[in-house]
Amino acid sequence: HSSLEQKRTRTVNINFFLEDGSMQILEPRVPNSGLAQGTLLRRQMVPKSGQAATTTSTSPFAPRSPSSRPGPRQPSVPFFTPADLGVGQDVTIYGRTYHIYDADAFTRDYY
Asked: Within its chain, how far is the Cα of 20 from the centroid?
């Protein structure tokens, strides 16, 4: 890493799990590269804003309108979906921008 270096291109695998909407980012290990490699993002749902997601829920003691009913907690920020991860798109995840330039056959057929 040089002080003159403006950016570095590295190859990673972005895995999106359709069953729960979670993502994982892995960098294939290259021997003797001198760079930290492996899991860059553990499997989790990733908010689009890059901020930590919080959830909101209604207090059971708060007054409610007759049309409201208790239910599952709702996320306060939107999360990444498969539509956000198309080939040719740039996505920023927790401050890092990734350019998606390829996908496996299943993913290409999905879109």
From this structure: 12
